[in-house]
Amino acid sequence: MTAQEPPAGPRGTHPRHALAALLNAPVRLSVVAALVPVDRAEFGFVRDLVEVSDSVLSKQVSALEEVGWVAVQKGRAGRRPRTWLSLTAEGRAVYQRHLAALRAIAAGEEFGGPGSTA
Questions:
Q1: Distance (Å, whole) CA 62 – CA 92
Q2: What pLDDT score does 11 carry?
């Protein structure tokens, strides 16, 4: 892209436009990343893995659930109440797009790649 060329489309071509703003928060990104390799995970497992308190995880999961990226299921394991978290199909897709955008930014693709004179 030269200095005279406007960005393509209303949002431009820079990979940052593909980032999911909600995943810019480190805890939310960590929660989603923890859920990627599993069908579902117990709340306490995710809390310990991400190293946050119950209240912090609860608040972040609520934000992810509100946009439809994380599903919350409550039930019992024996006599003990449990909460399980899982990524929705949309949540997985958003996460993959977010990662692809981060990789593109890190690779310098917004400037035409390494060695570009742009």
A1: 17
A2: 64
pLDDT in tens, 24-36: 999 999 999 999 9
Q: Which residue has the tokens 């990104």?
A: 29
User: How far is it, in rounded angstroms, from Cα 114 to Cα 34?
Assistant: 32
Round to whole Å and give the CA distance between 12 and 8. Answer: 5
pLDDT of 7 above 50: no
Q: Are 52 and 45 in contact (CB under 8 A)?
A: no
Q: Closest by alpha carbon to 102, among 18, 3, 1, 7?
A: 18
Q: b/e per residue, 105-114, with b = 16+ CB within 10 A?
A: beeebbeeee
Q: Are 56 and 26 in contact (CB under 8 A)?
A: no
3-state secondary structure of 52: coil
Contact between residue 72 and residue 83 where contact means Cβ atoms under 8 Å apart: yes
Burial class of 10 by CB neighbour count within 10 A (0 to 12, 13 to 18, 19+): exposed
